[in-house]
Amino acid sequence: MTQRLAVELESLGLACEVLHERNGTGSSDPALVASAGRAENGLILLVGHLDTVLPANATRRDGDRLFGTGALDMKGGLVTLIAALTLLRERGLSIPNDLVFVGTPDEESSGAISERLTRQWAARARVVVVLEPGLPHGDGETIVVGRRGLTEWRLDIRGTPAHSGLAYWSGRSALAAAADWCGRAQNMSQPGIGATVNVARLVAGDSDFVRQLERHHGLLGTSRRRNVVPDHALAEGEIRFLSNRDRERTLRQLRGLADRVAEIHGVEVAFTIGDTLPPVAPLRSAEELAARTLAFAEQRGWTLHVERDRGGISFSNYLEDNSIIPVLDGLGPVGAGMHTREEHLDLRSLRRRILLLADLLPTL
């Protein structure tokens, strides 16, 4: 994908460099930097990712819907960029010479390279444009100026093992405690602008099973070791939030819930937090940029709406300080089924987004 995109952008006069970025596993992955001119300060930075969640399968078209792995997230955004730059040339306009595109290889996995390159190049930018998909919304589609933040958490529960037939009441089930905590934690989620708690994984059983799951997963679906009160449980997940105050309040509630569950079930509970990505609050300059973009869409006869609380993590969450640089996000086309085998983009939306980006770029 890096090579293919470089060919397309070089044909439009951009200078392309393929970087081999360390990925944290002892190897490297390719990233792409394409510059329209001298890459100095005050750049128009466009960012997107080249990877997908699922392995690729064959594409198919059904009317105005194009189905394929990553068609929406986010090959559609990359095509929007290429076609918009092509359209500028067809209109007799120059591609802004301070335009830089950065394509990253790991946004759908660790995000380490994406975060590093975004921070590096955003430090030299005056505006950041993210080619992630928009969303259908009522009579139109969306663009994004604000995103939720994310904090990962982990719950470790230790109970007391016992023979489930001979000494059932002597045991203390870590699984029962974890299930109780997870159900209550999930129910803390609030609709609308409230914080959400997602329990992503729960593994429980006897300690050997949990600690060495790679060796003992074959126990699943058998009768072996079902006669043990499970003494170990691990749960992992995340919270998403619009403000740091929401984050701190939710974490306090989760810790308090851990203490209550420990007392109720007679188990030991350790609640810890992992990585955090900050929320992106809409800046006044981003709102002004969004208003200009909405006007371009209206002139073309369609409707755009502004999202200020998009739930998914994206490049704007990676900025060193997202209170300085205006970010216009969700410039890619809309569709449905992201991260599934039914992922597809709307080709009518793709045409609209190409025109929109071509109208917008010369004004940045």
Number of strand elements: 17
CATH architecture descriptor of the largest domain: 3-Layer(aba) Sandwich
Provide the CATH top-level class of the largest domain. Answer: Alpha Beta
Name the helicity range. 25-40%
The secondary structure category is: alpha+beta
In what order do the strands lie side by side in the largest sheet? 1-2-6-3-7-15
The N- and C-terminal alpha carbons lie at a distance of: 28 Å
Compressed to H and E, one letter per element, the order equals HEEEEEHEHEEEEHEHHEHEHEEEEH
Shape: elongated
Number of domains: 2
Q: Main β-sheet: number of strands, strand sense, barrel status?
A: 6 strands, mixed
Q: Which SSEs are present, and which pair or pack?
A:
Elements: H1 2-10, E1 15-22, E2 28-35, E3 43-49, E4 60-62, E5 65-67, H2 71-90, E6 99-104, H3 112-122, E7 125-130, E8 136-137, E9 140-144, E10 149-158, H4 174-186, E11 196-205, H5 207-211, H6 213-216, E12 232-241, H7 244-265, E13 268-277, H8 284-299, E14 304-307, E15 327-328, E16 335-336, E17 344-346, H9 347-360
Parallel strand pairs: 3-6, 3-7, 7-15, 9-14
Antiparallel strand pairs: 1-2, 2-6, 4-5, 5-17, 8-9, 10-12, 10-13, 11-12, 16-17
Helix pairs in contact: 2-9, 4-7, 8-9
Question: How would you describe this protein?
Answer:
- The chain is α+β, with helices and mostly antiparallel strands.
- It has two domains: 2-147 and 280-363, Zn peptidases (Aminopeptidase); 149-277, Alpha-Beta Plaits (2-Layer Sandwich), CATH 3.30.70.360.
- 31% of the residues lie in helices and 27% in strands.
- It is built from nine helices and 17 strands.
- It has helices spanning 2-10, 71-90, 112-122, 174-186, 207-211, 213-216, 244-265, 284-299, 347-360, and strands spanning 15-22, 28-35, 43-49, 60-62, 65-67, 99-104, 125-130, 136-137, 140-144, 149-158, 196-205, 232-241, 268-277, 304-307, 327-328, 335-336, 344-346.
- Strands 1-2-6-3-7-15 form a six-stranded mixed sheet, sandwiched between helices. Strands 4-5-17-16 form a four-stranded antiparallel sheet.
- A hairpin with a 2-residue loop joins strand 4 and strand 5.
- The longest helix is centred in the C-terminal third of the chain and has 22 residues, at 244-265.
- The relative contact order is 0.20.
- The mean pLDDT is 95.
